[in-house]
Amino acid sequence: xxxxxxxxxxxxxxxxxALLVVLVAISVFVAGVASAYAGYVExxxxxxxxxxxQAFVQQALSEPSLLHDxxxxxxxxxxxxxxxxxxxxxxxxxxRAGFNYSIELRAIGNxxxxxxxxxxxxxxxxxxxxxxxxxAPCNILTPEGRVEPAIMGLVAWGFAP
Length: 161
Hints:
The protein is built from 4 helices and 5 strands.
């Protein structure tokens, strides 16, 4: 440092770039921590929504009024085919589930005709945010007595907090 004359205090201007580097580094660190925390919160909420949907699918797979001999995952097509959408939504109301849903039961076997297909619930809006889709394996007992492999698919949206 130099003192005296009209030169002022020397050395102060040399510290400004170091201060700027430290401030930028601290800003980048804080932004990174905030971004990581926001990602963590979103991931936690996403997992909680998925768990709620999985529990809903398990309830549907265990609904005794739709199953053959109350065997979980073995749907009796005679019971499912006569079930109306309003009957299904009365058994599984959105207030109890905490979200709106569309659930589909479809046979996937090679020998299956296309008639083994049922859909219940609501129509998903095209721009719905936070959709969750889950597929669960199950079986359908046909009127002929055959057991066909099937998939129960759930699409959920409009989650209540």
